[in-house]
Amino acid sequence: MFHAHCSSWIELSSSAFEQNISSYRSILASKTLFGCVLKGNAYGHGLEECLQIVHNHVDILFFINPIDALNVRRQESLHRWPSKRIVVIGAMSAKEAIMCALEDIELAVTHENWENILSEALQDEVFEKSDKKLKLHIHVDSGLGREGFTLENLSQKVIFLKDKKKLFIQGIMTHFANTEDVTEQTYGEFQINNLATANDIIVSTLGLTYMPERHAAQSAASLIMPDCSFEIARIGISLYGLWPSRETKISTKIVRGQTTQLTPVLAWRCKSQCIKQIHEGSYIGYGCTFRAPKHMTIAVLPVGYFDGYPRLFSHKAFVLVQGKRCSVLGRVMMNHIVVDISDIKNPGQEITATLIGSDGQESISVETCASWAETINYEIVCRLGSHIKRVIVP
Ligand SMILES: *Cc1c(COP(=O)(O)O)cnc(C)c1O
């Protein structure tokens, strides 16, 4: 792969990752396994690089996509890392389920349609002859209204999992609907009660003689519902140093008496493509929506909405150059933005701009970006292009 000289790069701080992991370790019960969620190209941070940093520090890796999980097994053998527990919680085909089982990757059974997927999978001869089992986590829809078995007639819905010698019920899981959106958790508690009910029904229906691992808590619930971490926590957004929401930050202070330290892992920077002088009255960008009120110095930066710099940033955003805010002028384009660097002393031939992250005393948080684009921090980072070069920094 060639990386163009004139493109942007993402810096990932390994110490920030480690700090976030240890912050969570210190609040989770000691028996709770640390599951980290690496779905969506590690929340847009870059799976391959994030894996290198976190693999040794966590207990379980969670993915949506089975292909990501299989690639991690590849990475593990390439680097001679010990093999971690991996759980795929997203949709997959019978073929993918078998590929996962053969690599000791666990999966989530999420709906009655898994009866067909599993019966097809169980016909696979290689799997049949192997000593492997399909290790399953039964996903219960306790109130999110997304994937998972609902409680009505739950016993009938899961009976197809009973007495299959190549299946092993490893866990029972659910996912919260609105822990991030509120500062009191009545709905979360309703969901936890549903999980407990489901757990009893599943254990008795399937005649299990052991307790499957329970897991429910994501980043927010791990902080603000201390009793809900059970055997495994699934930490996503906060692993990357981002708060699930403002409400979660406030609730954490209320519930725990202090906030938890989270350090953003990512910074996004680029070098300018060119710098030029424009005279009063000239226009900038498509639609001629910006007209220079005076003589200005501008820098053209080689990033745009293709890279994940949202078009909604037009007329709102700023970047940092030499620790100073520089406004984005006119519209964000596919591969370019134009910024005002009139206040930068001696810019020379080329400047370095920070699009997300700190420079000197100033910083641009992912949350600020989310407010410019009328979205949440999760979406801002997830949409950062996978083509952008990632660099691990201390
Ligand atoms: C994304 C996801 C998580 C992680 O959520 P965060 O809010 O990012 O911590 C946990 N569990 C499931 C099922 C998810 O889809």
Q: Can you put this structure into words, describing what you see?
A:
- The strands form four sheets. This protein has an eight-stranded parallel beta sheet with strand order 8-7-6-5-4-3-2-9. A five-stranded mixed beta sheet has the order 19-18-10-1-20.
- Helix 5 packs across helix 6.
- The model has no long low-confidence stretch (mean pLDDT 97).
- The radius of gyration is 24 Å and the shape is elongated.
- It is an alpha/beta fold.
- The protein has 13 helices and 20 strands.
- The chain has helices at 14-27, 39-43, 47-54, 66-79, 94-102, 114-121, 125-129, 154-158, 186-205, 219-224, 246-256, 366-372, 377-382, and strands at 9-13, 33-37, 60-63, 85-88, 105-109, 134-139, 167-173, 213-215, 232-235, 266-271, 274-278, 283-284, 290-291, 296-301, 318-321, 324-329, 337-340, 352-359, 362-364, 389-393.
- The structure holds pyridoxal-5'-phosphate.
- Pyridoxal-5'-phosphate binds at residues 37, 39, 89, 175, 218-220, 234-237, 244.
The largest beta-sheet arranges its strands as: 8-7-6-5-4-3-2-9
Q: Runs with pLDDT <50, length 5+?
A: none
Question: What is the count of DSSP helices, taking H or I runs of 4+ residues?
Answer: 13
If you average the pLDDT, what whole number results?
A: 97
Strand content: 15-25%
What are the bound molecules? pyridoxal-5'-phosphate
Characterize the largest beta sheet: strand count, sense, and whether it forms a barrel. Answer: 8 strands, parallel
Number of beta-strand segments: 20
Which shape, going by the Cα principal axes?
elongated
Radius of gyration from the CA trace? 24 Å
Share of helical residues: 25-40%
Structural class: alpha/beta
Distance between the termini: 24 Å
